[in-house]
Amino acid sequence: MCQGSYRVSCRTVALACRILANAGLAEDILGHVSVRVGADTMLVRCRGPEERGLLFTLEDDIRLVDLAGAGDLDGWSVPSELPIHAELLLARPDVDAVVHCHPPSVLAAALAGVELRPVFGAYNIPAARMALDGVPVYPRKILVRRPELGRELVAAMGAAPVCVLNGHGIATVGSGPYAVEQAVVRALNLDVLARVSVEQALLGDRAEDLTPEDIAELPDLGSAFNDLNVWRHHVARLRHAGLDLD
Hints:
This protein is α+β, with helices and mostly antiparallel strands. It contains eight helices and seven strands; from the N terminus they run αβββαβααβαββααα. Helices cover 41% and strands 13% of the residues. β5, α5 and β6 form a beta-alpha-beta unit. It is globular and about 55 Å long.
């Protein structure tokens, strides 16, 4: 399956799944990553006949399917929540990759009604900007397994790069030639924001929001720094743990 022009993309999606699992955002067999490869096709992490979970995703687990889930499956099955990917790709031409996973930090924050506030700055500037922009929430605690439910999620998410699925998990998106890397790092940043928010709530939530003066001193360091460097770091962590694909 993952030969020729698809090889690099399959490898990237497989690494993305391993990174999410190694970072604790996908605890076992649940979660999936996709990347657009045509007007109506995507590569998506599927469940194979010897499924072992996201931490052990192989390139062969990445299959080419259309937006309805039909394609070269050969014993693999598409995620039941494929509509998360399909409806986001259909509705948003700016989106080239989609991550769906289940960070416990985000689950805890959403269930406890903990607001994801901009209480830190330079510690993680992209996460701080997520909080400043506001993180949308899809309120239903369900499996998004039908197109109409996927469209509900799309509507709740709007034009945002991330969305919390209450009682469930998250969806994040990426764009451009490094869309998968961007979507994964956005998921990692949302996890940081949720973990700090939950810890602040446990400590009495005494932190003040960022001031306009401090916000003005938080530059956008660009995707090469914010996304690709962080991605390379997490690939190196996989290699160090003996979990790389090589």
